[in-house]
Write a structure and sequence with these properties.
71% helix; AA-permease/SLC12A_dom; APC_YAT; transmembrane; 0% strand; Amino acid/polyamine transporter I; amino acid transmembrane transporter activity; transport; mainly alpha
Length: 352
């Protein structure tokens, strides 16, 4: 019998270390990608598609994301590499495909970072619009750097806290919507009136928003490389994905369609949190304090998503350098202080 034995290089020379536990990976899997897509983007989808279209759109997107994450979990256990699917693509398909995917993903990450920073401004405008946009962007650009500038364990702990806040508040929101604070059991009234606004065309217009709201779930694969025991931790984290999909997206979207009419005037012509169906629902129920708390949770969500974007972008470029598809200096930039300053300096300009 003839053959070759090849030792798989899991990226030992990237200067990244396995310091995270199962708790960190699980919380990143549960809440890291929950941002403005769900909290804010659903308002436009509710108006254009109608309640049934919004719910079915999230149901279909959740099914797709669940299947993809099962595959990601399998690959991350077998190949816990720095840039995850970028290097998987190079191994399974071709180096050319990995090169294109890696640099495309890196570009998408820093564009997304600028988008998240701009979203922070629109959210804070819910309370005050006297602070210049450039000032807010600069302040929270520094905040994101500080979250990532220390050891990866600090970043992970921040994600544990923010994910806990997001998950806990969504459960409170669902209970509040079920409680009918105005004393009027709305039921499926809005479904009966007009379940599909603009018909099948309206339903198709909802799907991109549903998929966008779930973007970033693949970031769990990046974290696997820095977990102490990915073979044990990754299956547990992936198994928890159904909680995020079920509570946040499926039940959350259902609650929106039950308590907010697609014809509600507050969904039209408002920027940022003012147009969020979650905020609108609490305002309509006569609970302005709950609306303020919801806006604060949305703010935390966007900062969390921006931080994860910075993390994913840095791991992508380090992984590319590891397989000689990016300048070797990128490996040195794996040290947090240098990496984030380098990368976020590029990001700041498009945000402004």
């Amino acid at each position: 019998m003839e053959g070759e034995i090849e030792e798989l290089d899991h990226g030992a020379d990237t200067q990244l270390h396995r310091t995270l536990g199962t708790r960190h990976l699980t919380m990143v899997a549960l809440g890291s990608a929950i941002g403005m897509g769900m909290w804010l983007g659903t308002s436009t989808s509710l108006v254009k598609g109608g309640p049934a279209a919004l719910f079915i759109g999230f149901l279909l997107a959740s099914s797709l994301v669940w299947a993809i994450n099962q595959a990601i979990g399998e690959m991350a256990v077998l190949y816990p590499l720095p840039s995850a699917f970028v290097q998987w693509t190079s191994i399974v398909i071709s180096p050319a495909a990995g090169f294109a995917l890696g640099w495309g993903y890196w570009m998408a990450y820093w564009i997304s970072m600028a988008n998240e920073l701009q979203a922070v401004v629109t959210i804070l405008n819910y309370w005050t619009d006297t602070v210049p946009t450039a000032a807010w962007i600069s302040i929270f650009w520094v905040v994101i750097i500080l979250i990532n500038v220390w050891a990866v364990r600090f970043f992970a702990e921040v994600e544990v806290v923010s994910s806990t806040i997001k998950f806990s508040w969504m459960i409170i929101v669902i209970i509040s919507f079920l409680a009918a604070p105005q004393g009027d059991a709305i039921g499926f009234r809005y479904w009966k009136e007009n379940p599909f606004t603009n018909g099948f065309k309206g339903f198709l217009s909802v799907l991109p928003t549903c998929v966008f709201a779930m973007a970033g779930m693949e970031n769990t694969a990046f974290v696997a490389h820095e977990v102490v025991n990915p073979r044990r931790s990754m299956p547990r984290a992936i198994s928890s994905i159904w909680l995020r999909l079920g509570v946040f997206y499926i039940v959350g979207s259902l609650m929106i369609t039950v308590v907010v009419s697609p014809r509600d005037p507050n969904l039209f012509g408002h920027e940022g949190s003012d147009g969020s169906p979650f905020v609108v629902a609490f305002k309509n129920a006569g609970l302005p304090s709950m609306a303020h708390i919801t806006n604060a949770v949305i703010f935390i969500s966007v900062i969390s998503t921006a931080s994860v974007t910075a993390y994913g972008g840095s791991r992508t470029i380090v992984g590319l350098a590891h397989i000689h598809m990016a300048p070797s200096v990128s490996v040195q930039l794996a040290f947090p202080s240098r990496r984030l300053i380098y990368r976020n300096t590029i990001v700041l300009k498009p945000a402004e």
